[in-house]
Design brief:
The chain contains two helices and 18 strands. The chain is mainly beta. The chain is globular and about 45 Å long.
C-alpha cells in the first residue's frame, strides 16, 4: 500500500511539474509581463517562467524585411528606426513582409513631437489603407496601449484613465503586445494597459505595421523591435 501511495504521489508531482513548465500565459486572467531579458515573469508572485526565443525584426542598419507604404519618411539614424512626416503629411506605414498570427512583440518607442502613431497587428495594407487592428501610440491623454479597429468598429477598448501616467513623453517607452487566438494584451513600461478577446481578431492573420498618422509634425523613434512566435507545441492556457 505504501509503495502504491508513493508511486501515485510521484506521478502527480511529475505531471504537475510538466504542466507548469509549459505554462506561458493566461489570455483570460493575464497577470504576466516580460522582463528585459525576455523571460516570462508573473507580476503577482515574481516567479521566473519560460525563457522565450525572440528574433529581431529591425536590424538597426536598414529596412530589410519591411515594406514602406505611402510617401512619409522612414529612415535609419544612429541605429534607430525613425518615422517622420513628409511633405504630403499623409498616413504612412512600415509593414513586415511576413504575416504573424500568434506572437509576443516587444519594442521601444520615443515620441519627439506630438502626433499619433501606432502598431498594427494581423493587418492587411493596400496603398495607405490598412484593415486590421492598431495598438495606439499617442501623446498623453490619447489612449496609448488601447486597441482601435481600422476601417471597422473603431475603438474596441481604451486603457483606464489612471494608466496614462505610464507613458513617458519624450523618453523611451517599452511596449509589449501579446496576441494569441482572439486574445490581445498590451503592456506599457511593465504595466498592463488592456486585455481584450474578440472572435473577429481570432479569425484574422496579417502583417505587423508601424504607423505615422496624417496631419504633419510627427516624429517617432523606434528600437529593439523583437518578436516571439508561438509554436504549436507551446501550450497557452
Amino acid at each position: 500500500m505504501k509503495n502504491f501511495l508513493f508511486s501515485y504521489l510521484f506521478i502527480c508531482f511529475i505531471t504537475l511539474n510538466s504542466c507548469t513548465s509549459l505554462k506561458i500565459f493566461s489570455p483570460q486572467t493575464d497577470n504576466h509581463y516580460y522582463s528585459n531579458n525576455e523571460t516570462l515573469v508573473d507580476s503577482k508572485s515574481q516567479i521566473s517562467g519560460t525563457k522565450l526565443d525572440f528574433k529581431e525584426l529591425f536590424n538597426g542598419k536598414d529596412l530589410s524585411g519591411w515594406i514602406v507604404y505611402g510617401t512619409e519618411k522612414w529612415y535609419i539614424e544612429d541605429g534607430l528606426l525613425v518615422c517622420e512626416s513628409g511633405p504630403d503629411a499623409q498616413y504612412g506605414y512600415l509593414g513586415t513582409e511576413k504575416y504573424y498570427k500568434n506572437f509576443i512583440l516587444n519594442l521601444e518607442f520615443m515620441q519627439e513631437a506630438n502626433g499619433n502613431s501606432g502598431v498594427f497587428f494581423r493587418s492587411t495594407v493596400e496603398g495607405t489603407k490598412v484593415s486590421g487592428w492598431q495598438v495606439e501610440v499617442a501623446p498623453p491623454g490619447s489612449f496609448t496601449g488601447g486597441i482601435y479597429e481600422s476601417y471597422g468598429r473603431g475603438w474596441l477598448i481604451k486603457p483606464d484613465d489612471g494608466k496614462d501616467s505610464s507613458l513617458k513623453m519624450g523618453e523611451w517607452n517599452k511596449l509589449t503586445i501579446k496576441v494569441y487566438g482572439g486574445s490581445v494584451t498590451t503592456f506599457l513600461n511593465g504595466k498592463q494597459m488592456i486585455t481584450y478577446s474578440d472572435d473577429k481578431i481570432g479569425q484574422a492573420n496579417g502583417r505587423i505595421a508601424l504607423q505615422i498618422h496624417d496631419g504633419g509634425g510627427i516624429k517617432v523613434k523606434w528600437k529593439n523591435i523583437k518578436i516571439h512566435e508561438f509554436k504549436k507545441s507551446e501550450k497557452i492556457f
